[in-house]
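Justification of computing resources. Each target in the renewal requires a structure prediction run like the one illustrated here; the chain below, 401 residues long, is used simply to show the kind of job we budget for.
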Amino acid sequence: MSERDRFRWAILALISVSHIMGAAAQYGISTLAPFYQQDLQLSRAQVGLFFSAFYLGMAGLSIAAGWLADRLGVRATTLNGHLVLGVCTAAAALAPSFAWAFGFFFLAGLGYSFLNPASTKGVMAWFHRDERATAMGIKQTGVPAGGVVAALLGPSLVMFAGWRAALAGLGIINLLFGFIFWACWREPAGEVVKADSSQLSIQPGKGALNVYTLLCVSFGTALFLVAQMSLITYVPLYLKDVMGFSSYRASQALALTQAGAMAGRIGWGIVSDRLFRGRRKSVLLIIGFLSTIITVGLSLVLPGSSLFTILPLIFIAGLCMVGYQGVSYALIGEIAGKDRTGMALGLVITVNSIGAIFGTPLFGYLVDATASYAIGWQVLAGIMLLGTVALVFFLQEPHSD
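Resulting C-alpha cells:
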C-alpha cells in the first residue's frame, strides 16, 4: 500500500464500532453489578469472578483466534466473534444463579477473543508506522466507548425492563453488528488474505515471532491489566459503598472513567507517534508511573469527599490506567510484523488475561477481607509499579516496521 488510501479512516471507524459493540457487552458485567449483585446474592469476589470467567475464555482461545485471523482474515474472524459474544451474553441474562452466569460469561469471552487480534491486524494492514499508534488508539477507544454505552444505556434500560433485559440487549446488538461488519469490510488494495502454514511457527528465526520480546511486553502489561480491570470492575461498587452514590449514579459514573480512557487511548497514541517519533516503550513507562501515583491518590480519598475530588480522579485514572492499550498494541504489531500480528496479539492477550483472571477477584477479596478500598488501591499501585519496572529492564524497543 504505497499510497495512503483515504478509505483507511472509514475502515478504522468500522473497526472502532466493532470494539464499541463488543466492549458494551463486556462492560455490562461491571456496569450492571450493583443491580444483579443483590438479586443473585453475590459477594464482591464473585462479581470479580465474572470478569475472570470472561478473561478465562479470552485466554483459552486468544492464540487460536489470532492464528485464525492471520489465516482467514479480518472479516470472517470478526463476524464469528460477534456472533458467539452476542448469543452467550444474551444467554447470561437468563442466569438463575452464579454458576449459570459464570459459564456463559466464559463462553462470551471465547467470542470476544476473536475481536482484538482481527482488528489489530486490520490496523497494521491499513496504516503506516507514523500513524499506527494513533490509529490503534482510536480503534481502542471503542473499548471504553463501549463502556460508556453500557454505563449510560444499561442503567436506563434497567429502570424500564430490569437488568436481565439490559444485558440481553447488549448481546443482541453484537449479534446484529457481526453481519453489518461482514457487509462493510474490505481489504486494502494489494493485500491478499494468505493461508501460509509457516505462520504456525513461533520459534526464533527469520520471519518467526519474537517470543521473548512479546513475553516481556506480556508480563508488564498483564500487571497493567490487573489494575485496569480492577478499576473498571469496582469503581461502581466503590462509589456506592464508600462514597454514598445510589446504584444508578454509581453505574453511570463509570462513564467518566471510560471517557478518560477514550481520551487517553487517542492522546497517548498521538504522543507516541508525534512527540516520541514512534518510541512506544518510553510512553508506556510514563503511563505506568503516572498510573501508580493516581492509584495511590485513590487510596487517600476520604469517604464522603466532594464530587470535585473523586470525579476528576476517576477520570484521570481512566486516562492513564485504561488509556495505554493503543500504544501497547502498536508495539506488539511492530514487534511481530504485519503477517503475524494476529497470533502475536493472541499470545500477549493470553498472558494478559491471566492477570485479569486472578487479579480482579483478588482485589474484591482483599476489599472484603480488610473492609477497606484504600488498602486495595494501595496494593494495586504496587502492582502497577512492578509492571512498569519490568518494562524498564526487560523490554527492548523494535527498530523496524
